[in-house]
């Protein structure tokens, strides 16, 4: 088992602590939080060992799980890597692309592993259809949330939209050639609602919308490709695959057949992929343990996290 420690005991940090404690791949050593009062409270309430210094925690573990505010990701990661520790780092990877690239360089120099917490890659609805999404040419995503003061220190693009940016970049194997965007600050000092259009060199277009001032929650993505439409509901863990194939000469009474202007007939049929329930955060943490133990590439690399941040910043700079 890998000895693991958590930096940051806020809302998400406490979830990571609980899951690392129950994981069969990690031995949770303890945690550090800059707020000593909060650290002692969490230690008393849950029994996790609270380290009074960040260095003491890092020295005691093999893997450092960084769940601190984004502004501190770079310093925490640099400190951990220089002490020879593998790092799991929550999204967004760092505050700037330059910081992210430096972290990647340090990891490579020290032959260590790193993974970024883009948890939607482990969403069971996405996993169920991932192999069906081959060459989408139009993608539409909506990620809406009710207002919560937590996370408003960064634009909604870095808080919410970055999930969908990472999903899209993991699927579209082409470079982004053009970005256009608009964002509006309603309650916060940074944009609370944003829309972006990404155009890729292969002709694919992605339209992304994110809001943290919505009256309802929504996390949906739709992928359109030749002869197929695929939808993913990340929130309710549902998915749908609608495909088209050449219609049979003698269709059945209940077959759905469309005919275009040229007389070509296509049959519509529905595929219902099996969704396997999981805990996505636990799965991403354990996938990282597997990558360390087998010396293989993590599912969400620091390169992935850097590219998602790079596109997110391009969107923000277009406001």
UniProtKB/TrEMBL annotation:
InterPro entries linked: Gfo/Idh/MocA-like_OxRdtase_N, Gfo/Idh/MocA_Oxidoreductases, GFO_IDH_MocA-like_dom, NAD(P)-bd_dom_sf
Domain of life: Bacteria
Pfam families, A to Z: GFO_IDH_MocA, GFO_IDH_MocA_C3
All copies of domain GFO/IDH/MocA-like oxidoreductase, residue ranges: 156-216
GO molecular function: nucleotide binding
Membrane-spanning segments: none
Domain Gfo/Idh/MocA-like oxidoreductase N-terminal: 3-118
Name of the protein in question: Gfo/Idh/MocA family oxidoreductase
């Amino acid at each position: 088992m890998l000895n693991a420690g958590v930096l940051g005991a806020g809302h998400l940090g406490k979830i990571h602590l609980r899951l690392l404690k129950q994981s069969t791949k990690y031995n949770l050593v303890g945690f550090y939080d800059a707020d000593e009062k909060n650290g002692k409270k969490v230690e008393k309430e849950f029994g996790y060992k609270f380290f009074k210094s960040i260095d003491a925690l890092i020295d005691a573990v093999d893997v450092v799980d960084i769940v601190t505010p984004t502004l501190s990701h770079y310093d925490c990661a640099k400190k951990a890597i220089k002490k020879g520790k593998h790092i799991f780092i929550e999204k967004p990877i760092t505050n700037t692309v330059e910081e992210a690239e430096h972290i990647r360089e340090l990891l490579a120099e020290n032959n260590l592993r790193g993974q970024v917490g883009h948890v939607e890659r482990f969403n069971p609805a996405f996993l169920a259809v991932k192999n069906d999404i081959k060459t989408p040419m139009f993608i539409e995503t909506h990620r809406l949330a009710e207002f919560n003061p937590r996370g408003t220190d960064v634009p909604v693009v870095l808080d919410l939209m970055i999930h969908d940016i990472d999903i899209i970049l993991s699927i579209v194997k082409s470079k982004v050639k053009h970005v256009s965007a608009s964002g509006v600050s309603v309650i916060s000092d940074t944009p609370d609602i944003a829309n972006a259009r990404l155009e890729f060199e292969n002709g694919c277009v992605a339209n992304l919308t994110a809001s943290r001032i919505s009256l309802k929650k929504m996390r949906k993505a739709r992928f359109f490709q030749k002869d197929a439409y695929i939808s993913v509901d990340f929130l309710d863990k549902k998915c749908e695959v609608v495909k088209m194939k050449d219609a049979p000469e003698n269709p059945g009474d209940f077959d759905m057949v469309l005919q275009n202007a040229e007389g070509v007939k296509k049959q519509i049929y529905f595929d219902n992929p099996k969704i396997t329930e999981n805990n996505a955060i636990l799965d991403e943490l354990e996938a990282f343990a597997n990558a360390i133990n087998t010396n293989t590439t993590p599912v969400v690399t620091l390169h992935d996290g850097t590219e998602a941040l790079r596109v997110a910043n391009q969107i923000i700079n277009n406001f």
